[in-house]
Specification:
By secondary structure, the chain is of the alpha+beta class. Among the domains are: 65 residues, no CATH class; 122 residues, Tetrahydropterin Synthase, Chain A. It is built from 7 helices and 9 strands; from the N terminus they run H-E-E-E-E-E-E-E-E-H-H-H-E-H-H-H. Strands 6, 7, 8 and 9 form a 4-stranded antiparallel β-sheet that branches. It has a 3-stranded antiparallel β-sheet with strand order 3-2-5, with helices on one face. The radius of gyration is 66 Å and the shape is rod-shaped. 13% of the residues are buried.
Length: 344
């Protein structure tokens, strides 16, 4: 029995002397030494890693845990959202003097290697760090940077994104030395003064109508230009057709002219040759053989033709006054009568 009591006493004493200290899956631990014969008093610079159990005397040490996961500071107009249950959005004026409220979310995490520094100089835990440091700075810097926009520039998402990146850069410059890393600055809804909001909406509607009219005008212009181009195309086609016909006619005329010119040259050459032949013939006829040649041609012409001899005495017929046709008919009748008598 005494042994059992001794064992229990030893366990209790061990738990009192070496109590367990744990870190969650995304948390790091920081130990503060109250008293130790082996180490200096104060915050230990060693960072205890996530997901582990560490044993050391509780009454001689303090233990603090910081979560390293991504966390949000959400400042919004909605009562049932965000970190606070009241209107928590950023209120400021645009650079052109209009009141605006803007919902902003700051996403951040702590630098685990700086957890001992955070405990010594910044905050005792995550809530303290979020409310007293991150939230305070996050409500100041974005208000100044987004206030550089004009009222209508809030409607342009690219402009808001540019300012969000600028706010992230400035926040990191301020918070990184305190062990806080800002990963993202996001904007959500924004609201103007009700009367001004209505004026902006009316102007947007008017701008949309103007844009629609511009689009309709541009479409009409493009349709006109299309028709103009189509008409130009038809005219060019007609001109090309006329030019083609003219060119074809010109080619045909040139070919016909060339043909007639060649024909005329051939006729001219033939006439020249024939003239030369006649000239040579005349020269031949004018010579001693001309009379013989004439007689030969005359004989060739009279070959096979009947020849009748007519008396031409002094008391005979006068060929100038004689009706040759009647005379031929008379001789023909007489020759027929003679042929008939002979046949009897």
């Amino acid at each position: 029995m005494r042994r059992i009591l001794l064992a229990v006493a030893l366990v209790i004493l061990g738990m009192l002397v070496f109590s367990p200290h744990t870190t969650g899956p995304t948390a790091v631990g920081v130990r503060t030494i109250k008293w130790s014969p082996f180490a200096a008093k104060g915050v230990e610079e060693h960072v205890y890693q996530p997901g582990a159990v560490y044993f050391f005397p509780a009454f001689l040490n303090d233990w603090h845990v910081f979560d390293t996961k991504l966390q949000n500071v959400e400042m919004t107009h909605e009562l049932n959202r965000g970190d606070k249950r009241f209107h928590d959005e950023l209120l400021f004026k645009t650079i052109d003097g209009n009141d605006i409220s803007l919902d902003v979310i700051i996403a951040y995490r702590i630098d685990s290697e700086k957890a001992p520094y955070i405990l010594q100089f910044v905050a005792m835990d995550d809530d303290d760090l979020k409310d007293k440091v991150v939230r305070t700075v996050a409500r100041s810097i974005p208000r100044d940077i987004f206030g550089e926009l004009k009222t209508e520039e809030f409607y342009v998402s690219d402009k808001r994104e540019q300012k969000a990146e600028a706010a992230k850069t400035v926040l990191n410059e301020l918070l990184n030395p305190y062990g806080v890393i800002v990963e993202r600055v996001s904007t959500k809804d924004y609201r103007f003064n009700a009367a001004y909001q209505k004026a902006i909406e009316d102007r947007k509607v008017a701008d949309q109508v103007a844009e629609q009219n511009k689009s309709a005008t541009k479409a009409a212009q493009e349709e006109y230009l299309k028709k103009l181009e189509d008409a130009k195309g038809e005219v060019n086609k007609m001109v090309a057709t006329a030019d083609g016909n003219f060119r074809q006619a010109q080619i045909e005329a040139d070919a016909y002219y060339e043909k007639q010119q060649r024909l005329a040259s051939a006729i001219e050459a033939e006439g020249i040759a024939e003239a030369k032949g006649i000239t040579e013939l005349n020269k031949a006829l004018a010579g001693s053989g001309g009379e013989v040649m004439v007689k030969l041609k005359l004989a060739e012409a009279l070959e096979g033709k009947p020849i009748m001899l007519l008396p031409s005495t002094g008391a005979g017929m006068d060929l100038k006054t004689t009706n040759i046709n009647r005379l031929l008919e008379t001789y023909g009748a007489r020759a027929a009568a003679e042929d008939s008598e002979r046949s009897k």
